[in-house]
Structures are given as C-alpha cells and as structure tokens.
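The authors assume throughout that readers already know how a fold can be written as discrete tokens. A single example would do more here than another paragraph of explanation. An entry of this sort, consisting of the sequence and the corresponding backbone structure tokens, reads as follows:
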Amino acid sequence: MLDVKSISSGYKDAQILHGVSLVVPEGKIVGLLGRNGMGKTTLIRSIMQVTPPNVISGSATWRGKELMGMPTDEVAMLGVGLVPQGRRLFPSLTVQEHLDIVPKRAPDAGHVDWTPERIYELFPRLGERKRHRGNQLSGGERQMLAIARALRLNPSLLLMDEPTEGLAPVMVQHVERAVLELKRDGITTLLVEQNLHSALTVTDEVYILETGQVVHHCSTQELVNDSATLHRYLGV
C-alpha cells in the first residue's frame, strides 16, 4: 500500500501542496484528477523524491517503508517506477538501449519479469522499432517507451503522470489497455490524468486536487454518477 500523509511541498518560495493525504491500495489503480496547476505533478515528484519540489513536511510510505528523505534511485529500487510527464526520453538512444540502461531489480515473487521480450509482447510496435532512436519515434511510440522503461525496473508500484497527454484516440486506447494489463499482473498504480474519460475507464477510485489540497475522494463509479462534483472541480 502507498500511504501518503499530510505532504506539503513547493518550489522556492511558492508552496504548492498543503497537507495532501491519500492511499493507494495494493493492486488497484487510483486516479489523481484536477485542473491544470493544482499540484498533481508536484505530488508525484514529491513521492518519488525528485527535486524540485522541496518537501516541507509529511510522509509517504510504500509497503511500510518511508520514502521521504530517501535518494530517488533508492526509491526506485524499492519497486517504485515513474512514467514522467513529457516522457523524458534520450533522443540519441534506441528503443533497445533505453531498455538496456535501466538498473535491474528482481521481480516480486509470483510476478512477471519485465524482460525486453515481455515488453515487446505488451507493445509490439516497440519491437518493430527497437533500433529506432528516441527522436525517430511518434508521440504514441514515445509514450509506450516511457512506460516500457519504467517496467524494466520490475516495479510493484507505478507513478504515471499524464500518460495519454497529446496522443491520438487510437494511441490512448493502447495506453489504457496496457495500464489494465499491468493491473492484471499485480502492479499498483497512481495515475495522474487530464483525460477524464481515460481516467474513468481504468481507475478503481479517484482523488481530486484543488489548489494543492484533496477536495474529494470516492470510487470511480461514484464520480461517474456525481455530475455536481464533476462540474464543480473538473469543469465537466
């Protein structure tokens, strides 16, 4: 279980998060929703211990281990994989080289070992493009590679920040299918998503952030049926 308690963080003199708390149960996909600028990416970066932002106070534990104050690479080796906003690929490295440079972590007992071969089964398009460099890939292929790179770590928890951003509808569907397949393989996911339809398609429950605070938490189905909350916080 990912247990976030009262995290406050920000950039230089600007505090963005104000005591954010949430729980991501094992094996579930939890959505983090909200308009632009509400602190969603800041929370993901705070949990992963990527700086900036600077965490002012609070706690984030994964399977009982405290992440706050831990170097980012050590957070990753606890099984926390990051799919960052904007993909952050190396333009000069091939698809295969992106997968080869990731430090290996043994998979959890009973879980899939995300070898390149297994990844190419999940994303056949990457197998066809494995000798292509990062700057030769389409937007959808780059997003597949960003997810694949995180999977090479053999994560038990994925933090996914806007994985469908800027993608054509057919590629959005590819990403949604991949996220659900990862859930079937037992990977827990915290998903930041601006595409509301996509978020409601794959998540089990959702939290909504507004001005750096959690203002709503419910099951995904409850949110689907709650037009007032959708309109108030998400403008739907």
